[in-house]
Design goal:
Chain A: It is found in: Membrane. The complex is a heterodimer of chains A (255) and B (520). Chain A is built from 9 helices and 2 strands. Chain A has 255 residues and is mostly helical. In chain A, strand 1 and strand 2 form a beta hairpin. The mean pLDDT of chain A is 88. The two termini of chain B are 33 Å apart. Chain B has a domain of 148 residues: Rossmann fold. The chains are: A mainly alpha (255), B alpha/beta (520). At the A-B interface, helix 7 and helix 8 of A face strand 6, helix 3 and helix 4 of B.
Chain lengths: 255, 520
C-alpha cells in the first residue's frame, strides 16, 4: 500500500509540518474536517489491522471528550454571556462551546495524524531512513534499535521477579517498598544485558561513525513527494473554505 | 596470533584476573581454553578481540599480536575483520530485529558495498543452515538457532580467527551437539582458527587440537595435547571447577582405569567387562501432589501428573515444551485454569512448606546482605548460622548477594528456600551456567536434603544428573507429558524424539554390549 511504502522521513516531516500548521489555527471546523480527511487517507492508502486502529483511537476520543467538558465547565468569564446554546439540559455561552470544540478536534487531529504514522511505518525502516536521509548518528539509531529489543525482555523479567518475591513471602510491606525491591535486580539485569549487547556490537565492528554502508537502502523517490503535496493541498483547501465561509481564526492564546 | 605475558587487573578488584598468560594460536588450529567461571576467561577473550585495553577500567600489561601486529594499535573496527566472537548469552548479542538484518549489520559496519551484501548474507546463512529463516524475527528463533545465527554473523565477515566464549552454556545437550557438529564441519570446509573458551570439556573432545588450562588465580597451568593434560591434571581440573570428560570421571570413580585415561565412552567401554551400575533406591513413596486434568491458559491442557512423597523428580524436555509452566503450576505460583490439583498443605501457608528456586537467583534476593537474606525468610540466628555453614557461605555473610559468584548466588537462593525446613523444593534448572565444581556442590547439598526426606522437583536438561540423582522423571514434549516413570525405564525409550541425550553411563554400557548404536 502507498502509505506503507512511503519514505518514512518524508512521512514524518509532512506530519510534523501539518501539526505545526494546524497549531496556528483556531476554529472548530478545520481540525474537524482534517481529522476526517486523515482517517479516510489512513484507511484508503494504508495496510494495517483495522481493529487495532479503532482500539487505539478510543482513548484519544475519550480524552477529547473529557477536554470538551472541562473546557466548558472551567471556562474564563465569557465576553458575550447573553449568547448561549443549549447543550442537552444545560445553557452555556456560545463562545465557550466554540473554544472547547476547537480544542477537542485539535487533539483528535493530532492523534489521527500520529496514528497514521504509527500504523503504517516499520520502526527499522524509519530508523534507517533517519540515518540515510536526515543524517541521524548511527550511534543513536542502533542504540534505539537495541533498546527496542530489550522491552519485551524487561517485561518478562519483571514478571519473574514479582513471582520470585511472592514465593519469598512478600506482600505485607507497603507497595512503595515492594517496588523499590524490584528495582535492584531489574536494573542490575538491564545494565549487564546492555553491556553485553554493546560488547557484541563492538566486536562486530560497530564504531558509531557515519562511515558505513547499508544493506537496505532507503531512498526518496518521486512518488514520495505525492504525500506532502496531497496533504498540503487538502490543508490549503480547508483554509480557503474557512476564509470563504468566514470562520477562519488564528490561534491567539484562547483557552 | 600471539599472546605475550598478558596480565590484567580491574580497578575495583584486589587480585589480578589474568597473570602472565602466554600462548599462541596457529593457523587452522582449534584450541580449547578451559577454566572455571570467574577465572578470567571472558576477560581474555576481550583482550584477543581488542575490546580491552580500549574499554578497560583497570591495568593491562603484556602484548597481544595478530600476524606480528599489536592488536591495541589497530584502528577501531579493523580487529573485527580479523577476530570474530560468538558470545555465551543468545539473548543479548543481537541488536537487529530480523535474521538477515543481523547478519548484514556486521557487513555494514565494515563498509561492504550494498550490492555484494545480499550474496554474503545468504552464503553465511547457508553455511550454518539457517537460510530458510532469513526473513524470520530474531526473537522467534530457538536458543540453538540463535547461536548459529551469531556464528553466521561472524562467518559473513570472514575473519581468520573465531573466538567462542562458552557458546553452548545456555543450550540444551542436543542443541549443543548440533552446534559443535556444525563447527567441526565448518572447520574442515574453511581455513579458520577456532579458539573455544569453556568449562565443560566433554562435547568438544573430537574437534580439539590443543588445550590450555586456566587456573583460578588467572595463570595458565597447562598448554598441550588434551590426553596428556587430562592424565596429568585430572584431579586438579575438578578443583579448578572444570568438568573432566565423563569417561575420565567414570574411570576415576569406578577405579577401572589409570592414566592414560579413556576420553570417550568408546574408550571407556573397551576397558570394561561389566556394565556400569545405576544408582539404587529408585522406589517412590505415596503421592504428595496430585494433578488430574489440569490446564493452563492455552499453553497446555488436560495434564495428569503425580509427585510422590520423598521423591527426587526431574522434569526434562526440549525448550518451550512447558517444563517451567508445569512446575510453576505444581508449585502454586500460577493458578491452574481448570482441572484438579491436590496439595498436602492449605494454600494460605503453602509457601511455608514449599520452596521454589527460580532460574535466575538474583530475582529472588530482597535484601542487602547474605545474612539479612536468610533472616528475611524468618530464620533465627542459630538457624542462619547452620544454613550458612551448610551452603559454605559463612565467610560471606556480610556480602551483598549480588556480589557473590554464580555458584554462591545459587546456593544462597537454595538456602533461602530451606529456612522453614520446607518439605518440598522446586528448582528451575539450578545447574544452568554453573561450572563443574559448583554443580557438584549444589547437587551434593540437594542429595543430602533429599536423604533427609525433602521432596525435590527439578527441571533439568542434564541426563547425567537425572541418571545419578533422580528417582523419577517426567518428560515434556509439545506441551504434553511424553513420559513419566523411573529414569532407568526412560533410557530404553526413544530419547532423540524427546530431544534428550543419553547419560554417559548408559552410552558406555551400550558400547560394552557391542551394540552398534551410534549417537549422533
Amino acid at each position: 500500500m502507498y502509505l506503507n511504502n512511503l519514505n518514512p522521513s518524508v512521512k514524518a516531516l509532512t506530519i510534523l509540518g501539518l501539526v505545526v500548521a494546524l497549531a496556528l489555527l483556531f476554529d472548530p471546523v478545520t481540525p474537524a474536517l482534517f481529522t476526517l480527511v486523515t482517517i479516510a487517507v489512513t484507511f484508503l492508502f494504508g495496510d494495517f489491522r483495522r481493529k487495532y486502529y479503532l482500539f487505539y483511537l478510543i482513548p484519544f476520543t475519550i480524552f477529547a471528550v473529557g477536554m470538551l467538558w472541562t473546557t466548558i465547565a472551567f471556562a474564563d468569564a465569557p465576553k458575550n454571556p447573553s449568547e448561549t446554546v443549549g447543550l442537552i439540559w444545560w445553557e452555556v455561552p456560545r463562545e465557550d462551546v466554540l473554544v472547547a470544540v476547537s480544542l477537542s478536534f485539535r487533539v483528535l487531529a493530532f492523534a489521527t495524524m500520529s496514528l497514521l504514522f504509527i500504523f503504517t511505518t516499520n520502526m527499522v525502516e524509519f530508523l534507517l531512513s533517519l540515518m540515510q536521509q536526515l543524517r541521524l548518528p548511527p550511534k543513536l539509531a542502533y542504540g534505539i534499535m537495541a533498546g527496542y529489543r530489550f522491552l519485551p525482555m524487561l517485561t518478562t523479567e519483571f514478571r519473574q521477579i514479582r513471582a520470585a518475591h511472592r514465593v519469598r513471602g512478600m506482600g505485607q510491606e507497603s507497595r512503595w517498598k515492594r517496588y523499590r525491591r524490584f528495582a535492584v535486580p531489574l536494573l542490575a539485569g538491564a545494565i549487564r544485558k546492555a553491556e553485553r549487547t554493546a560488547v557484541a556490537m563492538e566486536s562486530k565492528g560497530f564504531t558509531g561513525t557515519r562511515e558505513r554502508t547499508f544493506y537496505r537502502n532507503i531512498r526518496v523517490r518521486k512518488k514520495d513527494w505525492l504525500f506532502p503535496a496531497g496533504m498540503g493541498a487538502i490543508f490549503l483547501l480547508l483554509i480557503l473554505l474557512s476564509l470563504r465561509f468566514d470562520y477562519f481564526s488564528w490561534y491567539q492564546g484562547q483557552l | 596470533m600471539n599472546i605475550q605475558n598478558l596480565s590484567l587487573q580491574y580497578d575495583d578488584m584486589d587480585a589480578p584476573v589474568l597473570q602472565n598468560v602466554t600462548f599462541s594460536l596457529g593457523e587452522k588450529e582449534c584450541v580449547l581454553l578451559l577454566g572455571a567461571s570467574g577465572s578470567g576467561k571472558s576477560t581474555l577473550s576481550r583482550c584477543l578481540t581488542g575490546i580491552y585495553p580500549k574499554e578497560l577500567e583497570g591495568m593491562m600489561e603484556g602484548e597481544v599480536t595478530f600476524e606480528g601486529m599489536p592488536v591495541n594499535e589497530a584502528s577501531p573496527g579493523t580487529m573485527s575483520r580479523r577476530v570474530g566472537t560468538v558470545f555465551q548469552d543468545p539473548e543479548t548479542q543481537f541488536c537487529m530485529l530480523t535474521v538477515e538484518d543481523e547478519v548484514a549489520f556486521g557487513l555494514e559496519n565494515i563498509c561492504v558495498p550494498s550490492e555484494k551484501m545480499e550474496k554474503r548474507v545468504e552464503t553465511a546463512l547457508e553455511e550454518v543452515g539457517l537460510l530458510h529463516r532469513k526473513k524470520a524475527a530474531v526473537i522467534s528463533l530457538s536458543g540453538g538457532e540463535k547461536q548459529k545465527l551469531a556464528l553466521a554473523c561472524i562467518l559473513a565477515m570472514e575473519p581468520p580467527v573465531i573466538v567462542l566464549d562458552e557458546p553452548t552454556a545456555n543450550l540444551d545437550p542436543v542443541a549443543t551437539d548440533e552446534f559443535i557438529a556444525l563447527l567441526s564441519s565448518l572447520k574442515e570446509l574453511k581455513n579458520i582458527t577456532i579458539f573455544v573458551i569453556e568449562h565443560d570439556l566433554d562435547p568438544w573432545i573430537d574437534i580439539t587440537d590443543r588445550v590450555l588450562m586456566l587456573g583460578r588465580n588467572g595463570s595458565l597451568f597447562y598448554d598441550g595435547p588434551l590426553q596428556q593434560g587430562v592424565d596429568r591434571y585430572a584431579r586438579d581440573l575438578y578443583e579448578e571447577g572444570i568438568a573432566v570428560p565423563g569417561a575420565v570421571r567414570m574411570a576415576m570413580e569406578t577405579g577401572t582405569a589409570t592414566p592414560p585415561y579413556p576420553l570417550t565412552a568408546r574408550g571407556l567401554a573397551a576397558g570394561l567387562s561389566a556394565p556400569l551400575k545405576a544408582v539404587s533406591g529408585r522406589e517412590n513413596g505415596p503421592a504428595l501432589i496430585q494433578a488430574s486434568g489440569i490446564s493452563y491458559k492455552s499453553i497446555f491442557s488436560n495434564v495428569d501428573i503425580t509427585i510422590s512423597e520423598g521423591s527426587f523428580t526431574a522434569i526434562a524436555g526440549p525448550n518451550g515444551s512447558g517444563k517451567t509452566t508445569l512446575s510453576r503450576l505444581l508449585a502454586g505460583i500460577d493458578p491452574v485454569s481448570s482441572g484438579r490439583l491436590t496439595r498436602p498443605f492449605p494454600d494460605k501457608d503453602w509457601f511455608q512448606h514449599a520452596g521454589y528456586v527460580f532460574q535466575n537467583p538474583e530475582h529472588q534476593f530482597l535484601t542487602d546482605s547474605v545474612w539479612e537474606e536468610l533472616a528475611y525468610s524468618g530464620a533465627g540466628d542459630e538457624k542462619i548460622e547452620e544454613l550458612l555453614e551448610w551452603c559454605g557461605l559463612t565467610d560471606r555473610k556480610d556480602f551483598h548477594p549480588f556480589t557473590l559468584s554464580q555458584g554462591e548466588k545459587r546456593r544462597l537462593s537454595v538456602a533461602t528456600m530451606l529456612v522453614k525446613d520446607q518439605e518440598i523444593l522446586f528448582l528451575d534448572e539450578p545447574t544452568f551456567g554453573q561450572d563443574a565444581k559448583s554443580t557438584s556442590r549444589l547437587m551434593d547439598l540437594l542429595k543430602e536434603k533429599h536423604r533427609a526426606g525433602t521432596t525435590i522437583v527439578m527441571i533439568t536438561h542434564d541426563m547425567d544428573l537425572v541418571d545419578r540423582y533422580a528417582t523419577g522423571v517426567v518428560v515434556m514434549k509439545d506441551r504434553k507429558i511424553g513420559f513419566t516413570g523411573n529414569p532407568d525405564e526412560l533410557w530404553n525409550e526413544d530419547l532423540v524424539a524427546f530431544q534428550l541425550k543419553e547419560p554417559f553411563r548408559v552410552r558406555t554400557n551400550r558400547l560394552i554390549k557391542g551394540d552398534m548404536y551410534v549417537p549422533q
